[in-house]
Amino acid sequence: MAVKIEDYYRPEIFGKIKHFADDKETPFLVVDTSLIAQSYDELTGFFPSSKIYYAVKANPAPEILSLLRDRGSNFDIASRYELDKVMSFGVSADRVSYGNTIKKSADIRYFFEKGVRMFATDSEADLRNIAQAAPGSKVYVRILTEGNLTADWPLSRKFGCQPDMAMDLMIMARDLGLIPYGVSFHVGSQQREIGAWDAAIAKVKVIFERLKEEDGIELKMINMGGGFPARYISKTNNLETYASEIRRFLEEDFGDNMPEIILEPGRSLIGNSGVLVSEVVLISRKTRTALNRWVYTDVGKFSGLIETLDESIKYPVYTEKKGEMEDCIIAGPTCDSADIMYENYKYPLPLNLAIGDRLYWFSTGAYTTTYSAIEFNGFPPLKSYYL
Ligand SMILES: *Cc1c(COP(=O)(O)O)cnc(C)c1O
User: Fold this and answer.
1) Which of 13, 69, 115, 222 can pair with 93 through a Cys bridge, CB separation 3.0 to 4.6 Å?
2) Residues 187 and 299 in one domain
3) Is 136 in the same domain as 247?
4) Distance (Å, rounded) from C-alpha 130 to C-alpha 121?
5) In this structure, are 258 and 283 located in the same domain?
6) pLDDT by residue (tens digit) across 46-61?
7) Ligand 1, from 76, 119, 231, 307: best to mutate by most atoms within 8 Å of Cβ?
8) Is 227 in the pocket of ligand 1 (CB under 6 A)?
9) pTM greater than 0.70 (yes/no)
């Protein structure tokens, strides 16, 4: 089925983006920051008493950081470079959490000296480093979740530990002079199954209860990570449905003793705000009778579309050409045969699509610019503009 603008953008918004893009050389990303402001307000409306920590890795553009700073967001940060960048926009250290469980002792020290007092952990060695390099800080422990099968971009296996170990770590945190503060999880990015939060919250509840009853440790916070969806080809529920279900899960498990809730949105906040504008470089058939055309574009896996790995994220690809459609294979411009975005999943594109036509990749505001290679085959990094 052809991708329709109205399923993703209000026509006037797309019109504005397209007008801005018309006289510029492709490829590039255009982000409409008003859409980010809108998603931020929507999310805080759905979760009025939660704190937002924007996952900076999704898109660290200055325009986005300053917009979210002004709206009162906090920031989930994974490296000292992200920290420097965010703080250079006047964000104070008490609005930052060091959410990466994989970090050098020297980096923990760096964050501590800058004033950061909130750290994620999922292992004993890391916890001991935190106790030494960031004494007295708040620590929260990340648990493993089982949402991998239903998330389009799973994050879980590499991070987190089993609940038993999480409890051991919180006890150890107390004994090392840290503040055992809470539990975090990430159900997997672009998580299509809302039940994934239910299962994770249930695990957190057990950890809260057992630590309190058996060890006298009262945790204060649940960090629910990211995982909310952006709008791609594969349908999801809308954010309102996610929010009301998740609030219900929390209510059922925690009721009157609701801990502080942290959300770390990346994709859902930024994804839809961006349109990647590309051009068709070449169209070919591999035999005279081949049923599928290959459509090569000037953007590919190495210039921002790495999340098409295993065809995980299926971006809506829009063209102004109309008419009879044919399934296509879509590939990038580089001399690497991994640079094929969609081959198993055949994208229908109109038969009259021609070399030089523009293709608009919707919902590409998150996880594109920063993933772009700096010089593969000499192609420059993906340009981006912020309206
Ligand atoms: C990447 C990441 C996020 C953001 O996840 P999305 O699915 O993009 O919202 C949140 N928290 C942590 C710890 C992350 O690593």
Assistant:
1) 115
2) no
3) yes
4) 9
5) no
6) 999 999 999 999 999 9
7) 76
8) yes
9) yes
